[in-house]
């Protein structure tokens, strides 16, 4: 049994430390919000115990420090999530004198924001998204600043196109998520590629990401169901053992009862001392008491089996309800995204129809105002550097995007 729970513990620990491929290399910095969870294996109880005081969302401070209950103040700036998780576990083990190292899970719940400045409609701070590019950041900031009437349609086109690209990426993610939910609801093994994503370059990556989520969820559910099955088997074995003991106890009680019956008449005639009779009666009563205890223990074990069965049913029902709610929310988000895509497509069409300059902007040639970009980035050791960028340059958390209008397109 210990080996079984040991295996379950190792699998649970692996699930806690699984991160996306790029997360292990990401260096934390001020304003990053982290989701932290700590659990400890209780050998005596055979269960995991979560540390609620240190479980939750915490933000890296301006100096790069992370202040946690019990674990104290840690320097998170410039470190990865796995390094912080290891440091938290070691601090807790040392402070509380734990024999085993607790399992700490650290994930980035919210990246530090990016900043957009220069010739945009709404300069300022915006939340970071892992797939954020310069063009998407400019669209979040309202697109090109309205400097003069001649730039109106170009600004409108750029703004609409940027929002359109953001929504297309969001729609693709939602389509992949819906495909994963459909696969889980039918208990299939492989996610089928949605026909809407058939011609998308990064469609396979989206499906692979959702497949990783599905595997993690399936492993978690299987782990819980297997633990309940092991528990039911344990109690069933206990019931079998108790029933065998009851058979032996009944046989002994019957023998003593026969002996008591055979000497009862002799005791009445004074042929057998009363102490012998009393001893036999006491032994019979003890046997009956032990039988009642064994019967009570067997009943309690059966109740535990019924409870484990109900827990299995509750797990399955919760999973079904969660999938149904997820499918409903995903479909609603898809419908909303499609409506917005249609709106921005119409806006782009209007801009192209009403202004030749907007058409030139769309075709990437001809004359007209264009945007030039540069990025100011912290390299992780306190120093910053500025470099030129284009619309498709990927952004990192904390980046400052400078936007400037040039009079002519090169």
TrEMBL record:
The lineage of its organism: Bacteria, Pseudomonadati, Pseudomonadota, Alphaproteobacteria, Hyphomicrobiales. This is Sugar ABC transporter substrate-binding protein. GO terms for molecular function: polysaccharide transmembrane transporter activity. It holds the Pfam family Poly_export. Residues 23-108 form the Polysaccharide export protein N-terminal domain. Residues 298-347 form a coiled coil. Residues 1-23 form the signal peptide. Residues 114-149 form the Soluble ligand binding domain. Keywords: Coiled coil, Signal. InterPro entries: HH_AprE-like (IPR058781), Poly_export (IPR049712), Poly_export_N (IPR003715), Soluble_ligand-bd (IPR019554). It comes from the Bacteria. Residues 160-341 form the AprE-like long alpha-helical hairpin domain. Gene3D superfamilies: wza like domain.
